[in-house]
Design goal:
Blueprint: H1 2-28, H2 32-56, H3 70-91, H4 100-127, H5 143-162
Helix pairs in contact: 1-2, 1-5, 2-3, 2-4, 2-5, 3-4, 4-5
Length: 163
Amino acid sequence: MTKRNNRLKFLGIIFLLFSFYAVFDFRDNENYKDFLFIIFICILTDLGGYIFGKIFKGPKLTKISPKKTYTGVFGGFLLPLLGGLVIYQYGYTEQITVDGLYFLIIILFISSISQIGDLIISYFKRKAKIKDTGKILPGHGGLLDRIDGMIFVFPICYLILIL
């Protein structure tokens, strides 16, 4: 079991290093607007899930993260879509050469990966018996909870761009 744990830790470190490299490459190249866009969508996904889950409650999503609800998942899609529409209409249009439907699909893709990444990190935090990762964002799981979806979104988007 120890060899397996060591291999998993090693793979986790490699994945995190690749994730940080993807963030660095997005930020460093001409893709800095894409970098900011991904961060914006991930934050709106996290906020939408938190706000909708707190306000509308609803049935629980999974035992991995007991505070997550189906309404939170819906809010995690709705808020980034609304924010993306605002960006598409008013702030990002000179850079967008894609159709509006394709742009919405990109937002839904980023939001989906962000929510899946959030659940995966929640699983690892439960396994490590860590409830919150800080007090900077009280009631919201800490600062790591804000970026846990991004840890998965950046490498996946990076791989899509280079392929």
